[in-house]
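Listing S7. Sequence submitted for prediction.
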Amino acid sequence: MVEYKSIGKPLIKVDAVDKVTGQAQFIDDLRLPGMLFGKVKRSTVAHARILVVHTSRAEKVPGVRAVVTGKEFAERFSHPLCGNPMKDQPFLAIERIRFAGEAVAGVVATSEEAAEEAVDRIEVELEELPPVLSIDDALKADAPILHENLMDYKRSASMNPLGGSNICDRSVITAGDIEKGFQEADHIFEDTFTTQILQHTALEPRAAVAQFHHNGGVTIWTSDQAPYDARSNVADALNIPPSKVRIVVPSYVGGGFGAKIRLTGLIACLPLAWKANYRPVKFLLTRQEEFTSTTTRHAAKITLKTGVKNDGAILARHAVLIYENGAYCDRGATVLGKGRYSVIGPYKIPHVRVDGQLVYTNKPPGGAFRGYGIPQVCWAHDSQMDIIARKLGLDPFEIRLRNIVDEGYVSGTEKTAHHAVGLGECLKQVRTHMQKSKALNPPKGNLKSGIGIACGYKISRTPSGADAFVKLSPDGGADILVSSTEMGQGINTVLCQIAAEELSIDIRNIRVMPPDTYTTPMFPATTSSRTTFFMGNAVKAAAQDIRDQLFSLAERIFQTDRRRLILENGTISDSADPSRKMALKEFIQMTYAGGANIMGRGNYCHYWPGKVPGHVKLEIEPALCWQYAAYGIQVLVDADTGKVRVQKVFAANDVGCAINPSNCEGQIEGGFVQAMGGCLMEEMRFGGKGRLLNPSFADYKIPVSRDIPEIEVILVEEPHREGPYGAKGLGEIALVPVAPAIANAVYDAVGVRIKDLPITPEKVLEGIKAQQVMRTED
């Protein structure tokens, strides 16, 4: 076991003081000379044709500098549509409104109040159309078509839409012989599970400040998780070179969870700034706009047909997976891709077929959300795993241990070999801890206790990579220049620990600079649990580059073999002659008398060609790194009211290497609470005409402090051969197994199987009453 000085230590986050003292600066703190304020007129109907947009009354409001419509902006730019794999979403609605909350026109004014008044004076004449408000409605033969020109949109070659329908993307994955698998099975189980639409509910609403320049470029200051991808999207939409687009991210972002990615929800800032005569325009969403007009977590409908042997071995699984994408594609294709690869679960299933679809509806677009579609499929596969175990009279731990993937297993959907699989150890640790534990509150009265388990995995797709610069200053401190985003997850602390370890300097003398596409190097996005793995490796390489430069200089100064040199505690010394020792600060100043920085450059990329086993046909880009987790949960269910309370959680996560154990624990605890909210209480509810009924925290309930149970975090470390010090990703897997574990515990308590999220008291009570009726009839 290697003993590190910084790695593996529960150090306090490097940004802790700034945050608790109020010195942390967020995007709304930005003030620029001559700054104006932008607001948009939003539709109150879900589906309509735009006939006329009247702006004359708005233009007369004192302080208004400009009013812009979608049609006007589209006529100016040759690429008016924006998006990701599918370019299907206008900056402002042009001829068609596709969800209630969509931006129709924008106002730029000298104050927020003037902008709001002007927006209220904009009048929009509409021809309302029938809305499509569910997956089933979207797939009907006579359903209204949301995108009549679907096949004309610019899109990624990997997408497979169906013209003349509401199907945005579709695919089929197969392995083995599915019919043979079912024929050889002793039992066949078929169940359908659904999940609801969720909001990210990040503490900080989305905001941006945009400014066009006389040279044809544009600068956007925004709290974005993917500044370089945002740059590419803007350059493509405006038909200008990426070098003309600058994306600047503040030092702090108040939560992301996939919400703040590629200017999602903020694309109206461009037409607003375009009309502002080169002045900067701030565009800040209200909390209601966060709910009604930004991306959400996809609702899903998942049907699993699974064939098993009497001993619990799974032979075959046919999964039909449909995600509700809302009005526009956004990141839906990626969500569908990750879901279809993961819907079989972390299990050895030789015969597989997955049919996946992504459908449009007249609701806010589904987008990136922590877990990228995998919590939805885990809800299905690990709920069904308990259904199978109980039907066959098998222990829920044993049936999972019998079927889980192990080292070198080639997944039927991923087509690549699993590596560093700590899932079995996670399951065993959870079982051991649960056996030692006693219920916190023994059941009283009509309270029923139950326990449930679930396991899951999360992939980080490739190809992917990261670049990093590390600048060593003459005083021995260091700056890390990267384009990853610190949004509360603690990545800046992790990167500082890596640099401190490699350079042997005090972490308090290291800073991470905020992303700026003019100065910080390329990184695709702070998403997909990739940052510690990819950026951690890049920073490690950059710090090692500095070590190499220092040793090359010291080799000549000390007249010794560089293999004998030691960089430790801010000094360089010769291991063969301890008298030859020099402080790093003194060494740099002596070597560069005029004052200089030593720059280190690091890069880590994983390209998939040649990385797969030779006998496997390459059908998709393989994953490089999987994350694994197993959760055990104790619940109390009130049989009189149906209320479910989580008592205690045993959360085992395979982190590869806990670079900062307390940071890992915080990620797991926060992930659990977020997932518990989605399991038990959160749901965006829409009326019959597609308007959101609960667009505020008054009606959209999220967990509060009194809802949080005792959480026992179990860190399993199965080192990854390519991870920095063996580390893997963690941010998303913490959510994945939560909902099925709670559902399995509820069934254990009261015998009610819930297949449709959220697990509300009404659903539980309805199930209990249905049982009582059945007993009476028997």
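Caption to Listing S7: primary sequence and predicted structure tokens for the chain studied. The chain has a mean pLDDT of 92. The CA atoms of residues 141 and 165 lie 8 Å apart.
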